[in-house]
Amino acid sequence: MDEKEQKVEDKEEASNEHHRHNIAIAVVLIVIAILILAGGCFFLGRISSRAKIGRIDFARDVAIERPTMPQMIGGRGGQFRDSGISGKITAISGDNLIIHSDSANKDYTVVISNNTSIRNSREIASKSDLKNNQTIRVSGTSNSSGQILARLIVIQ
Fold it and tell me: Are 140 and 64 a contacting pair, CB within 8 Å?
């Protein structure tokens, strides 16, 4: 092999090594970018869920929770943790309940919609499971009339 061929071969080898080095750097940068994006998505998800969970409206001296989903305590099969109103059902009329809260010594009108979740302990229940003199906990929002638009009713 003459000197010219050796120089060409050395140049090609140096170029190949430089190319492999650049590929390794590119792979490392891509992995870092993916980790940063994943961390950012996780962080934004945590922020947005915190903004939804635990916000409370105060309507007519009663705290009513506004989250879109009830928060569970203790993972699968846990209990619901929510703010809301507890009371005994004193009247049922169609999609409306009247409950009496002993703690506030007031009656509240609760409106049940198709979006209302009804639970009996850990089981899914229905509107037909609601009876007079039952104690329930209601979470939802209040409308301008002071009625509670129920998001979640838990039979206790």
Answer: yes
Check: CB of residue 110 under 8 Å from CB of residue 62.
Answer: no
- pTM, two decimals, is 0.49
| CA distance linking residue 114 with residue 143, whole number of Å | 17
pLDDT tens track of the chain, all 156 residues?
Answer: 677 777 778 778 878 888 888 899 999 999 999 988 888 877 766 655 444 444 444 444 444 444 444 444 344 443 444 458 889 999 999 999 999 988 888 899 999 999 999 998 778 999 999 999 999 999 888 888 888 899 999 998
Residue 134 region, left (φ>0) first, then alpha (ψ -120 to 50), else beta?
beta
SS3 27: helix
